[in-house]
Amino acid sequence: MAEKKRIVSGMRPTGALHLGNYHGALLNWISMQDNHECFFFIADWHALTSNYEDPKNIPDFNRQMIVDWLSAGLSPEKSTLFVQSHIKEHAELYLILSMITPTPWLERNPTYKDQIDQLNTKDLSTFGFLGYPVLQAADIIIYKAQGVPVGIDQCAHIEITREIARRFNYLYGHVFPEPETILTEMAKILGTDRRKMSKSYDNAIYLSDSPEAITATALKMITDPQRARKSDPGNPDICNVFEFHKLYSPKERVANVREDCRAAKIGCVDCKKMMAANLVAALAPIREKNQYYRAHPKEVDDILAAGRETAGRVATQTMAEVRAAIHL
Fold first, then answer.
1. Burial of 222 (0-12, 13-18, 19+ CB in 10 A)
2. Is 138 a domain residue?
3. Are residues 167 and 269 in the same domain?
4. What is the model's pTM?
5. Which of 1, 32, 83, 300 has the least C-beta neighbours within 10 A?
6. b/e per residue, 151-185, with b = 16+ CB within 10 A?
7. What percent of the chain clears pLDDT 70, i.e. is strictly above it?
8. What mean pLDDT value characterizes the chain?
9. Residue 135 belongs to some domain of the structure
10. 3 near 35, Cβ under 8 Å?
11. Does residue 206 form part of some domain?
């Protein structure tokens, strides 16, 4: 039997997870559990890179994230689930890697300036924000990951990790494999206002939302912007509600909605209500598990403790090799 490829990935805790997180990363993680050795971590130190002024919510966000992960289908029997800051070796390796990482590598990071522009209400002129790719590299290579699942927009991050691992190996001898980029397909899903689904835009549908909240949010969704009246033919190909139908409605319903929209046989409000009903039904198992784990905090604590033990054991071994390599 072939040895499973080890993969590592993390997610910053910023609150409850929404459908963008679910389709953008979580579903792919869930699908990899059976065929890979998976390490998934809550990147709470990474949350400090942009939220260092107000970190008080991070512990609650950590809890929300692990509950959402478990509810969606990540399994502690199949994957190692843990909190980044519980494994102090991440910080030690981050420090060592920062000594050998050229500053221009960080300054050319394509998302660095983009993030500064997008988050222009925050002071991000910090070493931590500039150097977060080094911390990200430490998060990955400390587990000697062979692959990292990402979308195409994150490939540059993994390339920096590969460069840092390569430089360490060149200077001190081979310790780290260079992780491969595992490109994952992501379903097209936007927020209610047709922008990227985001908490900061207040345009998200959350995995833990009640049926009433899901329906209320769905009814606010922007549809075909060129369709002013119910009697006007619509274009489902540019309608965000139709994208949700394709994900959550039966195929027959999707075909009917497409035809009825083009023929002006269905109005946008009725279309939204149908989609919302199917979305509520699809998320019901996740919502039920969410309620279960919120009612059983000790079980969640035990899962994180087990993940901490497994991740810590691997990280400790790696750091012993690193210290020997650099003669410390």
1. middle
2. yes
3. no
4. 0.94
5. 1
6. eeebebbbebbbbbbeebbeebeebbebbebbebe
7. 98
8. 94
9. yes
10. no
11. no
